[in-house]
Amino acid sequence: MTSQLRIYTMKPGAMEPFVALWREHVVPARAVYGFGVTGSWTTPDGAEFVWVVEFDGDLAAFEAADKAYYDSPERAALPTSPAEYIASMDLRMLAPVA
């Protein structure tokens, strides 16, 4: 299992429409390519959206599936680009603690 921590700093006023887009479109589109969501959170001030996405495979398989998702018709069919709501992103690969 490979996991990635995704931290998005949101543009002002963007949290609510972004979360709706994420729930209704992004998560289902990613599921088509084998991704699952471990959890999602917002910071108390509403400035950041944090989630963990996982894939049942090694890092190379994760990266291949991630590319397939971004190049997919499902991604192209999103009603709005998530980038319209996100000011900045911090993506970090995670390793389990034994």
Detailed description of the structure:
By secondary structure, the chain is of the alpha+beta class. It contains three helices and four strands, in the order βαββααβ. It has helices at residues 15-32, 59-70, 73-76, and strands at 2-10, 35-42, 48-55, 86-94. A four-stranded antiparallel beta sheet has the order 2-3-1-4. Strand 2 (35-42) and strand 3 form a beta hairpin. The radius of gyration is 13 Å and the shape is globular. The two termini are 13 Å apart.
- Which stretches are low in confidence, meaning pLDDT under 50 for 5 or more residues running? none
The share of residues in extended strands comes to 25-35%
Percent helix: 25-40%
Annotation field: number of helices: 3
Biggest sheet descriptor: 4 strands, antiparallel
How far apart the termini lie comes to 13 Å
Average pLDDT score: 95
In short:
Helices cover 35% and strands 35% of the residues.
Please render the helix and strand layout as text.
Layout: E1 2-10, H1 15-32, E2 35-42, E3 48-55, H2 59-70, H3 73-76, E4 86-94
Antiparallel strand pairs: 1-3, 1-4, 2-3
Domain NIPSNAP: 4-98
Protein name: NIPSNAP domain-containing protein
Pfam family, one: NIPSNAP
